[in-house]
Automatic annotation (TrEMBL):
PANTHER family: SMALL NUCLEAR RIBONUCLEOPROTEIN F SNRNP-F (PTHR11021), U6 SNRNA-ASSOCIATED SM-LIKE PROTEIN LSM6 (PTHR11021:SF1). This is Sm domain-containing protein. GO terms for molecular function: RNA binding. The lineage of its organism: Eukaryota, Fungi, Fungi incertae sedis, Zoopagomycota, Kickxellomycotina. Its main location: cytoplasm.
C-alpha cells in the first residue's frame, strides 16, 4: 500500500524556506527568525532573529548563523 501524502524532510524544509521558524538547540535555547537558507549539514542562516530562553527573549540579532551540529529541531513559527 503506497501513501502518496508522505513528505520527505527536504520537502518540509523547502516549504518553510523564507518563513518564520523556531530552531531549538541541544542546549535548550530557541531561536526564532526567518529561515534564509540551510545546507546539507543543517547549518542554518536566520534573518530578524530573536534568542529565547525559558520563553523570554534574551537577545535580538539581525542575521544569525547556527552550526548544524547544535540543532535539535526546526519547526514552523
Amino acid at each position: 500500500m503506497e501513501n502518496t501524502n508522505l513528505k520527505t524532510p527536504a520537502d518540509f524544509l523547502q516549504k518553510i524556506l523564507g518563513k518564520p521558524v523556531y530552531v531549538r538547540l541541544h542546549s535548550g535555547i530557541y531561536y526564532k527568525g526567518t529561515l534564509a537558507c540551510l545546507d546539507g549539514y543543517m547549518n542554518i542562516a536566520l534573518e530578524n532573529t530573536e534568542e529565547l530562553y525559558e520563553g523570554k527573549v534574551t537577545n535580538s540579532y539581525g542575521d544569525a548563523f547556527i552550526r548544524g551540529n547544535n540543532v535539535l529541531y526546526i519547526s514552523p513559527a
